[in-house]
Write a structure and sequence with these properties.
By secondary structure, the chain is α/β, with parallel strands linked by helices. It has 3 domains: about 10-95, DNA polymerase, domain 1 (Orthogonal Bundle); about 125-190, Orthogonal Bundle (Helix Hairpins), CATH 1.10.287.180; about 205-270, Transcription elongation factor, GreA/GreB, C-terminal domain (Chitinase A, domain 3, Roll), CATH 3.10.50.30. The chain is about 45% helix and about 15% strand. It contains 10 helices and 7 strands. The protein has helices at about 10-20, 25-30, 30-40, 50-60, 70, 75-85, 105-110, 125-155, 160-185, 240-245; strands spanning about 120-125, 190, 205-210, 220-225, 235, 255-260, 260-270. A hairpin with a 2-residue loop joins β6 (about 255-260) and β7 (about 260-270). α1 runs antiparallel to α3. The chain is globular and about 70 Å long.
Length: about 270
């Protein structure tokens, strides 16, 4: 349940640091936490941050090389803290994964009946339209940031010009997001929707009916690109622990999935697209 009093990301970060939770790594990682908060938007409410944004940030950091995992480490306890405080429902920390470089492409997809182009971004029409809308919003914000920089530069003392530095930092974040989103749109493949048919293996866009082997309860998940992930709607990212464990699985298979709270044991009862 989400707390009625949901702070901004900036305020939540201040509280997290004051709480001294997360261990020494988190408390020493103030700079990395500050970068993440700036990336998302300091004044945004905590519950507005989506799993796809967290994953995008992880991908962005992943471009930095071998120290990417170290840079992401302080964020995990911070995101866990947000959930523990009741400000968010979905666990965001699971989406902080640095993408691995693929050694081979295409072979598993072609054999499983999945999409042949592993480098493509497979989106629903709704997801594609959402990305287009996000780019338009960011380009509008780009214009206002340029004006903010112009006003800040009217102060000739550039040595201690906090508004100028903040505006330039925000400009860099916006430009980076625009590049990433546009790259995703260029490589996007819009998946066809309509009458659902039987599917032999779980692929992006597949809808899976799972049975919990312990409780007997059934759950339904749709495997989606990280940009469309929404756990509350049953849409899980293919890079999340559950999503990655289900990829390329078949009906009748039993799947054990390690998650922070233990192990989930499912039987795949149905796969459709």
């Amino acid at each position: 349940m989400i707390s009625q009093s949901c702070p901004s990301l900036s305020e939540a970060l201040t509280r997290f640091i004051a709480s001294k939770k997360g261990g020494k790594k988190a408390q020493d990682g103030h700079q990395e936490l500050g970068r993440f908060v700036a990336w998302c938007g300091r004044q945004r409410n905590v519950n507005d941050v989506s799993p796809s944004e967290v994953a995008e940030y992880a991908q962005h950091i992943g471009l930095g090389g071998v120290d990417s995992a170290i840079r992401l480490n302080p964020l995990k306890p911070f995101l866990t803290y947000l959930k523990d405080e009741g400000w968010i429902v979905n666990g965001l920390a699971a989406h902080l994964r640095v993408p691995r470089t693929r050694k081979t492409t295409g072979s598993r997809s072609s054999s499983s009946g999945a999409f042949a182009d592993d480098d493509a971004t497979h989106l629903s029409q709704e997801g594609y339209d959402r990305l287009v809308s996000q780019v338009e919003v960011l380009k509008s914000e780009r214009i206002s940031i340029v004006e903010d920089i112009r006003r800040a530069m009217e102060d000739k003392d550039f040595r201690e010009n906090a508004p100028l530095e903040a505006a330039k930092e925000r400009q860099g974040i916006i430009e980076s997001k625009i590049r990433e989103l546009e790259a995703g749109l260029v490589s996007a493949v819009v998946m066809q929707t309509g009458r659902r048919t039987a599917q032999q293996k779980a692929v992006v866009g597949a809808k899976l009916t799972l049975k919990d082997m312990n409780s007997g309860k059934k759950v339904v998940y749709t495997l989606v690109d990280v940009r469309e992930a929404d756990v509350s709607s049953g849409k899980i990212s293919t890079v999340s622990p559950v999503g990655s464990a289900l990829m390329s699985r078949s009906v009748g298979e039993e799947v054990a999935i390690n998650v922070p709270k233990g192990t989930l044991n499912y039987t795949i009862e149905k796969i459709s697209t």
